[in-house]
């Protein structure tokens, strides 16, 4: 597909849910759009009290000239992780699971999993690990689990149903002894999703729908977008050089399929829920989830979705002392700003809550390596 230029001669369109003017949060990121560094972005800024500014700027699809809307859909990728962690904490609250039980007590296929060690001659040797990872470690990237299975690297992250995916994970050795170090992993979240299925008797995706999405009004959050939602899906763009000598750092942009996903995206026979990065959502829905966390587990109508203690546990640093990485349960933490927690995704989306200040910020883009995505997030956070 040929690269498409950002239409700099045309004013950048914007859209808000309530028809209000461009708000202060959106104005902070406008320079990135006006400079043609990013095709489009949806930003949201709000608090636990329900106030929110949600604004779309730029284009959903450059080829057709379709502008982004405040309800445009994005693949949120790893921002799925805190949602999966919240669902697992609900299972813990029900007494159906424990953070500190070995994962293989629920998933016996992992009992024979080995640990890979480097021999003095540089060869890899496989030994029995001192113990298996706990679910606490699975949800904090300290279980030694691989990021993805070899099958997923070769194919797509959503190519296997969860039971078959578990088999591929169990066949691969741990990359580190459980609890020894931080090693980013989708596999640990898939293991937590499998525990949700086996202990609740409900498919993981349905548990998420009934326990989280429905109570929070997250009507545009799904593993399989509907045909209507696909009409609102933001096109993914990568940088592309052209004959004018531009190096792709700002434009033009080349539309791409997201190579981690199986197409068509609505196909429930060939695509399967992936607990570490499979969800599609909107800025409003992601805001609703983080607002629930900021409210200590309460839904907008005051119903309790999660125990306040569970939210505190998600926000607490779970990585061991001496490990420089700061991570909770499905939440990235900051050593400098202990009251902030959030998560980003592979296509550049970001979400963060400042629990002390009562402020939540969301930045939604569909970027495959566009530097404007990081610039927009930096500008949004700078206000």
What's the arrangement of secondary structure elements?
Layout (H helix, E strand, L loop, with lengths): L13 E3 L7 H11 L5 E7 L5 E10 L4 E2 L6 E2 L4 H14 L9 H4 L8 E4 L5 E4 L7 H4 L11 H5 L7 H10 L15 H14 L3 H13 L10 H4 L5 E4 L13 E4 L23 E2 L1 H12 L13 H8 L16 E2 L6 E5 L5 E5 L4 E6 L6 H11 L2
Antiparallel strand pairs: 1-3, 2-3, 2-14, 3-4, 5-10, 6-7, 8-9, 11-12, 12-13, 13-14
How would you describe this structure in keywords?
single chain; 383 residues; alpha+beta; Beta-lactamase; 2 domains; two-stranded antiparallel ribbon; 12 helices; 16% strand
Describe the protein's architecture and organization:
The protein is an alpha+beta fold. The protein folds into two domains: 1-72 and 224-271, no CATH class; 79-219 and 297-345, DD-peptidase/beta-lactamase superfamily (Beta-lactamase, 3-Layer(aba) Sandwich). Helices cover 29% and strands 16% of the residues. The chain contains twelve helices and 14 strands. The protein has helices at 24-34, 80-93, 103-106, 135-138, 150-154, 162-171, 187-200, 204-216, 227-230, 283-294, 308-315, 371-381, and strands at residues 14-16, 40-46, 52-61, 66-67, 74-75, 115-118, 124-127, 236-239, 253-256, 280-281, 332-333, 340-344, 350-354, 359-364. Strands 1, 2, 3, 4, 11, 12, 13 and 14 form an eight-stranded antiparallel beta sheet that branches. Strands 5-10 form a two-stranded antiparallel sheet. Helix 2 (80-93) packs across helix 8. The protein is globular.
């Amino acid at each position: 597909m040929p690269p498409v230029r950002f239409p700099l001669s045309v004013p950048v369109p914007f859209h808000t849910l309530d028809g209000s003017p461009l708000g202060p949060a959106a104005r902070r990121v406008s320079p990135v759009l006006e400079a043609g560094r990013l095709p489009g972005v949806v930003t949201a800024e709000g608090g636990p009290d329900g106030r929110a500014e949600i604004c779309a700027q730029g284009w959903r699809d450059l080829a057709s000239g379709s502008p982004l809307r405040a309800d445009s859909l994005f693949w949120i990728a790893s921002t799925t992780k805190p949602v999966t962690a919240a669902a697992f904490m609900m299972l813990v609250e029900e007494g159906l699971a424990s953070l500190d039980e070995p994962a293989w007590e629920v998933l016996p296929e992992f009992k024979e999993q080995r640990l890979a060690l480097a021999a003095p001659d540089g060869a890899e040797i496989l030994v029995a690990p001192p113990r298996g990872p706990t679910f606490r470690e699975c949800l904090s990237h300290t279980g030694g689990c691989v990021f993805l299975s070899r099958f997923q690297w070769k194919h797509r992250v959503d190519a296997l149903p969860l039971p078959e995916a578990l088999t591929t994970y169990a066949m691969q050795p741990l990359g580190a002894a459980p609890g020894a170090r931080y090693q980013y992993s989708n596999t640990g979240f898939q293991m937590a999703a499998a525990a949700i299925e086996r202990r609740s008797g409900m498919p993981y995706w349905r548990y998420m729908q009934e326990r989280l999405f429905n109570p929070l009004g997250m009507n545009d959050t799904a593993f399989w977008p509907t045909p209507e939602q696909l009409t609102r899906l933001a096109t993914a763009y990568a940088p592309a050089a052209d004959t004018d000598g531009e190096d792709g750092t700002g434009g033009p942009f080349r539309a791409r399929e997201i190579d981690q996903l199986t197409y068509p995206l609505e196909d429930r026979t060939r695509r399967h829920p992936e607990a570490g990065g499979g969800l599609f959502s909107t800025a409003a829905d992601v805001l609703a989830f983080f607002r629930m966390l900021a409210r200590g587990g309460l839904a907008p109508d005051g119903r309790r979705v999660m125990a306040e203690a569970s939210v505190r546990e998600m926000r607490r640093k779970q990585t061991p002392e001496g490990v420089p990485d700061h991570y909770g349960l499905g939440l990235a933490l900051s050593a400098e700003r202990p009251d902030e927690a959030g998560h980003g995704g592979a296509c550049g989306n970001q979400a963060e809550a400042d629990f002390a200040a009562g402020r939540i910020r969301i930045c939604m883009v569909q970027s495959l390596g566009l530097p404007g995505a990081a610039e927009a997030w930096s500008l949004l956070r700078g206000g």
